[in-house]
Amino acid sequence: MADAIQSFFKSQQKLSTRYTSNVVKNIWKEEMGPTIFSYTKRVQFSKGTLRIYLTSSTLRHELSMSKQKIANLMNAQLGAEIVKEVIIT
Q1: How many domains are there within the chain?
Q2: CA distances from 72 to 8, 9, 35, 61, 82 (A)
């Protein structure tokens, strides 16, 4: 019985993690707009770290200067401090 309960909670945690990751990706798309999103190759969110992969080195440099601002924007949309670090590559 205890194994079944632990298994249930682990599966719920995975669902919650995937859901949060998808929400973060959607917020990135909405908040950055179509121009920046068109240069976005991939968005990953795991364990409080938001990783943004861009195809433009100029945009990468520009957004690297605003990492804290991006984290604050994402957290404001999420309603909690979930994004702790932003990595732009």
Answers
A1: 1
A2: 33, 30, 21, 19, 10
